[in-house]
Amino acid sequence: MDLSIVIVNYKSEEKTLACLNAIKAGDMSGLKYEIIVVDNASGDEMRDVLRLHKDIYFKRSSQNLGMGGGNNYGIKDARGKYILVLNPDTLVSPKAIKTLFEYIKNHLEAGIVGPKLLNTDGSLQYSCARFPKFYTPLLRRTFVGKLGKKHLANFMMMDFGHDVIRPVDWLMGSCLMINREALQKIGGGFDESFFMYFEDIDLCRRMWKAGFKVIYNPEVVVVHDHARQSARAPWYSAPFTDKLAREHIKSWLIYFLK
């Protein structure tokens, strides 16, 4: 098996269906692949997904395992030499998956390769970044950010045009092509200490530490309907009113303690 595509659904049944439709509409010629869909105890019935895509391997978790845990639950049964972790809120372009696969297959130094992500309006989504400092989330989430614009621009790699293939510190976990052998050398998956947020940064950091590169490849384009849900509420009330904001703070502390 060449490739295992893992998609974790949580209350996003319609987006998961659209994601699967885009995969099937793309150029997958010559690839032996499987699609593993994990329902992360979302309560979605997934009727249309199962009716229209009978060839997928469907797993339903009895509890919400979080982003990293949900992907690990799918990866456990993956048979592919390479693994594509793909969010349900993504739409791959016709040659996206095959191009990512060919790149990582031909570059043994690459542990992870990710595409250029676009917002739904076609604008660039800053999906590759430098490793954060401890204070970076404070600058991103609070009024203090007005004093740290230079730092944030550097963190989000706004100093290059996002149009050349290059190594980067880390990639947003919405679409990651991963070398299975490299993944095994760093523990076999995501660190489940992170329920949500920072699991992608941690994965990329471990890849670099193990001697593998993390590569941004803008020759591949994927649309990502991204919503920063942890930033829904005002910064001063979010820790008290928003569960996702609390999870973000928790993961931030876990990451830097680690």
Report on the architecture of this protein:
- The chain has 258 residues and is α/β, with parallel strands linked by helices.
- Helices cover 34% and strands 23% of the residues.
- The chain is globular.
- 38% of the residues are buried.
- The model is unreliable at 230-238 (pLDDT under 50).
List the helices and strands and how they pair.
Layout: E1 3-9, H1 13-25, E2 33-39, H2 47-52, E3 57-60, H3 66-75, E4 82-86, E5 90-92, H4 96-106, E6 110-118, E7 124-125, E8 128-129, H5 136-141, H6 149-155, E9 166-167, E10 170-171, E11 175-179, H7 180-185, H8 199-209, E12 213-224, H9 238-241, H10 243-257
Parallel strand pairs: 1-2, 1-4, 2-3, 6-12
Antiparallel strand pairs: 4-11, 5-12, 6-7, 6-11, 8-10, 9-12
Distance N to C terminus: 35 Å
Q: Mean of the pLDDT scores?
A: 92
Class by helix and strand content?
alpha/beta
How many separate helices? Answer: 10
Radius of gyration: 18 Å
Low-confidence stretches: 230-238
Helix content: 25-40%
Major sheet size, sense and barrel closure: 10 strands, mixed
What is the string of helix and strand elements?
EHEHEHEEHEEEHHEEEHHEHH
Q: What best-fitting shape do the alpha-carbon axes yield?
A: globular
Which percent range describes the beta-strand content? 15-25%
